[in-house]
Amino acid sequence: MAGNENFEPKILAFLCNWCSYAAADLAGSSRMQYPPQIRVIRVPCSGRIDPFLLIRAFNSGADGILVSGCHPGDCHYLDGNYYARRRFLMLKELMQYAGIAEERVNFTWCSASEGKRFAAIVDRVVERIKAVGPWEGFDSRGFIRREEEVAGGN
Amino acid sequence: MAKPVMVIGGGIAGIQAAFDLGEMGVPVYLVETSPSLGGRMAQLDKTFPTNDCSTCILAPKISDCYNHEMVTTYTYTDVLDIEGQEGDFRVKVRKNPRYINEDACTGCGECVEKCPVKVPDAYNEGLIKRKAIYKYYDQGVPNVVTIDPEHCLKIQKGRCGLCEKMCDTGAINYEQESEEMELEVAAVIYAAGYEAFQGNEVSEYGYLRHPNVITSLEYERYLSASGPTEGHIQRLTDGEEARKIAFIHCAGSRDTRNDCNYCSAVCCMYSIKQALVTREHSDEIEAIDLYYMDIRAYGKGFESYYNTAEATEGINFRRNRVARLEEDQENGEIIVKGLDDQGRFSEEKYDLVVLGVGLQPNKEVTEMMKRLRIRVNKYGFAATDELDPLATSCKGIFTCGVAAGPKDIPESVIEASGAAAQAAIIARSQPAPEPVKAAKEEEKEVPYRFVDYERVRIGVFVCHCGNNIGGVVDVPRVTEQAEHLPYVEHSEEIKYLCSPDNLELIGDRIKEKNLNRVVVASCTPRTHEALFRQAVSWGGLNPYLMVMSNIRDQNSWVHREEKEKATEKALDLIKASVAKARKSQALERSRVDKLDKGFVIGGGVAGMTAALQLAEIGFPVVLIEKDKELGGNARDLFYTTEGRPARRLLKELQEKVENKDLIETYCGYRATKVEGYVGNFTLTLSPETGESGQEKEIEGGVIVVATGAGELETDEYLAGQSSRVLSQVDLEKKMRDNDLEKDLKKVFMIQCVGSREEPREYCSRICCNQAVNSAIHLKERDPELDITILYRDIRTYGFYEDNYRKARQLGVKFVRFDVEEKPRVEESKEGLSISYRDQVAGIEKTEQADLLILSKAVVAQEESDVLSKQLKVPLNEDGFFLEAHVKLMPVDFATDGVYLCGLAHGPKNLSESISQARAAAGRAAVVLTREYLLTEAMVAYIDSDLCMSCQNCVEVCPYQAISMSEWTGKAEVNRVLCKGCGSCTAVCRPHAADLHGFSNQEIIEEMEAIFADRQPAPLKGEGK
Amino acid sequence: METNYSEISKKIQEISRKLLEEGRVDRVIGFERGEFTGEMTPVLVTDPEEAENLLFNPECEMMLAKYLLDYGGSTTGIVAKPCDTRAITVYLAEELIKRDEIVIIGINDCQGLEENEACDECGVRNPVVADEEIGQPRQEPVETDIKDDLKDMSLGERFAYFQEEFSRCIRCYACREACFVCSCEECFVDSNQPQWVGFSVGLRDNFTFHLMRAMHMAGRCINCGACELACPEAINMRALTRNLYRVAQEVYEFEPGLDPEEKTLFATYRLNDSEQGFLD
């Protein structure tokens, strides 16, 4: 296992106001329990999210990111998530090509009634990021080997 | 100022009606008998034909309505009696005791967890248990709990009382009594919905006897992520995964034995939806079989949805009349026994059988209507006139949604907007009695303190929410640490921040400490942001200078066992809000002037009705028709769908329009240029080629598109080549002019000519009814006449099923054909001969016919694309105009101020066009009744110094809110049209576009604050 | 067949002179031999008499298209290699320039530049759009492939590789200046409200800068290689952008600069776009 056993990741999540943020609220009112390592920033729509913000999150020190919008077709603003989907896919490819483990870059959809799903997603994302260990930054030369070990050189 | 209107029923129809009335400045009492708004739609998982998540689209609508300043909502309230007449009704209502002080309850749900009593949960169709103190459903509005007195130990036996002990706000009141009120209203809208048909009423299906036979509404809960199986397809009886599922259509519909001869109009589609969603949920499914008589996919987009299902592997459509369901005692499997379309017996086993139950009138509502002397039809639904489809027999009482007959969500929404428009006319003509809820407490023009040049001074308020937050998060520690954050001048912990006293306290602190930013750390902004913004404004501060941290719903509630980490997280979230607050700006909703006039493009029945409706509400209308005279397609109609003479009715309508002073009619004109936006359009009207007249420029505030549709031109089945081959319209003309041959012996009709096949993959909706009606008329003239209708599915939805039955009783023959094996028509000297395959007998037949009547497809107007470009509104793939949202905005376009009705939207009959026209007029009146238009505060803006004019933002904006300035050549945002989604922000490469309230700067600050502890050195020089 | 450059230059001079004399354009942008260094440098010709200075040869490595952005509202003729015409197409697609304001003197059968590796990956050897064409268009298609020299590296090796590359970056922004895509009024690296990335030269911000830069180019970069040619530290920054070029090609069948009617990658979508790698 990479990282250390006590590794507490800190994950940045962007949730769209109408579906995914609502799902997170529903997980709350249903008292579903999920890991506390996630920090949510609310945005109106996944279509609002400039990929620069996500790159920037790694510059700031996030161990990983999660972005969740309305399911395709459900966008409160008609089609914002369709545009977002292209940007996210491209960003994911970019990050992975640059050597950042894909476990750190997570995109998904959650509808307002999927509180359970939201909790499960957080579970999964925390697991994924724990598995690749702490993000030590673009300028840390030491930790690359570990990253590789776990990610299996994909 | 108008007199109030009462809306009875808080489902989607009632919500839409109440919201529209409120938007028109009419005070509304919205009365709902269950504890929460939302109705049936709130129980649904997905909706057809878009598979939209029901909650996702409904919840924002509920909260808009509930929070509307003109709408007073009474949930858990029954209507007892209505007295009086149009303009002056007195409605007696009884508010049932919730045993909860609604003002004190915060909806935190601590009591629900502690309550020891479990009872079947009606919201989940009794499939799981809820507590005796409960919230009807999680997202329910209002956000308060209710005690079920029949099961509460305290109320029944004087024991327990746990909830009272748990409740810190003292909201529990076991002594609460029901309260009766008399409300004075000008008009009433009945939107009381329906009961689902009880499965056990069809005894041979064995519902309740066989546990693996369930109703479709129950299955809807199975599919829901928040339902009993959390979306897994398994049998509740033994938890086994269901791999083989049968859907039985028409359970309780089209069935004379149960006094339900009518078609429930939605079951075919919801069964298809459930089949598709099931397929999505699980790969383990072996087979999903749908047992049906006719697939009635007659609505907009339904046919292609049906085709998708048909093409989906594992979904099988079986035309089969199910006789009975039996249970295999050993494994609980259900044996479906039926008769297939070739008359053979069939038998097959399934893990689970879902009954596609129909929609029945709510018996109590029927009784109520009878008592009020509102006419009901023979099935118990409110009786309406097809040409005035939203009015009941009692003047001043309107109806919408399923209360007046089975229908789907968009049609219910259309009717709701239409009924609201009609009720508004009455309400606006009546003086408002005192005391009514004051219209918009005329936004107290408190000038907010100007803080732009002040040093930032932030006040942080951390809410304990009783034990909800305080029991998990170390609130004192968080409060103390928050005080040391940059620019924080004040930090305070409060037990319940949302209580009225403490809301005032926020205002006081702002003044006292001269705060210019506020951070509230409490629950979710989705429910409480508006409230705290208001509190901030009481302190003289611009409400957008308040930022919330969600440390309850997304923190203390979900990390209960990890108090330390939850505390850290709370602090991070507060740091983020403090950082965002530092950069937040005072925002305003600005006023934009608007014009009072409405345009209606198209002078058919829909256009004329919309024009009249707008004029009756009180606005001048410009009605534009490209033909020389008004009337449109209805000029060729002989009978209405219900068999009334269409001509006279059309004439009456024409006269009304011509005599209405407020309507200015331009026949022989066409809109050739459209400029401007909602509230401020300029249309250039040019005379049609060949017509005389001057070009005119007219200004107005809204545009209603009612440009109609046409009939397919085809040569299929010898159309246009033989005098013996007529269209349904030709036949009506002949009947009208008494021009039919006297000695007809044999008549054939062929359905779906040009519909339901490439290149028109849609159902033309009206032709089955038209054919059945024509057949009845022909039979009534000459009972000996031999009539055969060749069809693919008979789609006489709703009460039109009665006509279908009547036609069969009169001896009209119905013979089905497959699209792969169409009938063939030939003509020789002897006359027409028609060859077709008799599927039941399994033989080819050739018969002579005196006359062949074709049901030709309804096709979109070819010139629609010109108008579509002018108005910047889209067309769908079939060329019909595409509304903003198929389910919930059926007459609006995504572009504000432009509305849609009639055949331009899609095929529909006269009655449906009239409803939709009233709805479009109502929605348009929402804009016209306002004194001025108010923009959103959190809208996009563009830094024109940075803009490169690449127009990507123009491309992605779903609301046509961005255009290129004529002066600067740079993009500019029309604040009236912008809804604040921020799509432009993310697509703008030079970052010229940004979004108020969620600016790049604000988001970056939040991020930096959250990860401040992760960074070797601050990125920026800006320290404490 | 050997390309006859003096023939081409003569053709350019003729056409340019004619355009200027007839007043069809206010200026022609092309190449001339530099006065001091003797290198081929861009020149802007407004006088028909000066048209004879215009030259073309394999040393003309710069892309001239970017100059068009400075002359909106007037008419410009431009000597355009096929890659220039792709850049022009991108501009046309984004309506940054107007078609009727430019006259494109396109040069057929581009042989590519020796020192630009990107040319080996380029299959566009004739102008995508041109008003005047010089030379015979190349008929046979050029089989090319977007190279991926990092594909055999592991994730960690790639990260280390880019760290090594970007650690050399001195943030001179020559790549930006050379790039025709880079046309923002204010570059994101210069913005301080908000500050997208730190100004200082350091691996953390350098790496961030290059990731943002690649994302910024996505869907517009035509893989012309100008950035790399301009880089004084010979950083392999094209590795990132050309990977995204390839992804867009594979996933969205999208290649920028071939069709002026096509919307940019991120300003459009299909209902069934890929969700590969998304959490289900």
Give an overview in words.
The complex is a heterotrimer of chains A (154), B (1024) and C (280). Chain A contains 5 helices and 4 strands, in the order E-H-E-H-E-H-E-H-H. Chain A is α/β, with parallel strands linked by helices. Chain A has one domain (11-151): Rossmann fold. In chain A, strands 2-1-3-4 form a 4-stranded parallel sheet, with helices on both faces. In chain A, helix 1 (20-29) packs across helix 4. The longest helix of chain A has 18 residues, at 80-97. Chain A is globular, with a radius of gyration of 15 Å. In chain B, 27% of the residues lie in helices and 24% in strands. Chain B has 26 helices and 51 strands. A 7-stranded mixed sheet of chain B has the order 15-21-16-17-18-19-20. Chain B has a 5-stranded parallel sheet with strand order 5-2-1-13-23, with helices on one face. Chain B has a 5-stranded parallel sheet with strand order 31-30-29-35-46, with helices on one face. The radius of gyration of chain B is 31 Å and the shape is globular. Chain B starts with a strand and ends in a 14-residue tail after the last helix. The model of chain B is unreliable at 436-443 and 1017-1024 (pLDDT under 50). Chain C is α/β, with parallel strands linked by helices and 280 residues long. Chain C folds into 2 domains: 5-134, no CATH class; 155-267, no CATH class. Chain C has helices at residues 5-21, 82-93, 155-167, 174-178, 203-217, 226-230, 238-252, and strands spanning 27-33, 40-45, 76-80, 102-107, 132-134. Chain C has a 5-stranded mixed sheet. In chain C, helix 2 links the parallel strand 3 (76-80) and strand 4 (102-107). In chain C, 44% of the residues are buried. Classes of the chains: A alpha/beta (154), B alpha/beta (1024), C alpha/beta (280).
